[in-house]
């Protein structure tokens, strides 16, 4: 949107005006413009000329430094300028049936002395105006005419009198009090916080003052510990935390009720450093976010709240798998749907409460299956397996059931309410190495890979599981060796419906894609030089981790022509783990699409595969978001499956209040 001839100094948005909201901008060209940012309704994507400048207000004689909407005063306007005036504007009457309101001048208040108004905020019928001398003036609604519009000539007296008679008193303000002791230098910003109970003023004296909006008493004084001026602020309604951004690129988290610093984090490390604006977005189904405005763009940060961890004790031997079951099991039926989209259909309270209804199960080489309550963080109950060693475990997509694979060559079905239900035998004597489950045309199927190189398929029903037929998914007649990884995909990114398929990783490094619709292999390729230990999916992208220490990324948008996109690895490192250790486990973070990888030596890395860590290294894809290593912990292939890594990463970043696309230190 173009129209101003000078720098745009202030913005405000009124969602209740116009077709879908109006944007107001104040500029150094001394004008205020009203915009319809959505353009004409009958054009789905308006061009530059399609954006509508509804009105231009040119009453000011200096740069307009602040514009605010009087929401509770019939959506009037208030503005302040370097011409030492504060002006109010009211929407003309009789335009209810028209598309846009039309604003007329209501009042002009001249700032006394040599200072000029530099910031303002609105609380109900009260204006707080900060000036260049560090003072704060409080204006309240008034029916008097001490600051009325002054006619320029006698000929204008009749018109002005008629105009004043038509102006509602809600747009007339009078000075009630003035505070000059809060700042020693000019004020750059005023912000209402805590349900409009407090006013935060940011000054050029490197201080932030928190003032009671009703009494005018000083509540607290916040001094910049880094000797950098505060220039932006935002209020977190959920945790009642004040965010302060400074010119050095730091964000300070301040508890104004306890008058203490909660945290401090550098958000910007390269010039220009200043955080010129902030906005806190809380209560969304996908999480809480902080938006920071920079000189060259906007960054979005995810807020982690009350993230803690508990070391669960109970197993006496190595943990081989962890799975999650929601009490509303139907929420897992469409596994290819983005969880963020599913959660957005629910109210925010329901989405938040659903996190408390999850149970996760862990199984170990000690033969026990334990249920842990994710909200209470304690063990609920356990099952015991005495027949054979458990090698893997997954959860049903439609029923409250668990499936465990055993080295005796069979799969056991467990009800989370009644314990062991049945045993599914595999042909051959090879142990079960991996399991996967998915929905094919409303029918849940269970996949089991074995050391014999076969994949067995069962149909899962509420009370029975019909016998499945084992087969070898391969183009070739000879066996590919041991099946080391399995993953199911609904194929929602494909053009036609009913395109479900699964991907098999072999000990030889071969990767095979088998289609349920065609009942045949659609693609087979050599993915690695060693065993494929783990597979993960995000949309049409397949990620494979291997004993050859590499994490590769594949594009499956056209299944028969699947091709490699690159290798996720640190710059100047020949391995994806950075330590030469095999990649034994992969997962994808819901909502954000970050790829989690675990190496056998305890290295955990979170990847943003959409960007580069080093643009000069063309054969290495991915930017490292988080990286740590547990020196005393070693992963094996069966140590952790899918959702386990999600828990581990959430625990590891517990010390960070905010995180975004950068490397975090544990």
Automatic annotation (TrEMBL):
Signal peptide: none
Native organism: Phytophthora nicotianae CJ01A1
PROSITE patterns, sorted: WD_REPEATS_1, WD_REPEATS_2, WD_REPEATS_REGION
Transmembrane intervals: 632-653
First and last residues of every WD repeat: 1-36, 525-556, 576-617
Keyword Repeat: yes
InterPro entries: Quinoprotein_ADH-like_sf (IPR011047), WD40/YVTN_repeat-like_dom_sf (IPR015943), WD40_PAC1 (IPR020472), WD40_repeat_CS (IPR019775), WD40_repeat_dom_sf (IPR036322), WD40_rpt (IPR001680)
Keyword Membrane annotated: yes
UniProt keywords, alphabetically: Membrane, Repeat, Transmembrane, Transmembrane helix, WD repeat
Name the record gives this protein: Anaphase-promoting complex subunit 4 WD40 domain-containing protein
Entries under Pfam families matching the protein: WD40 (PF00400)
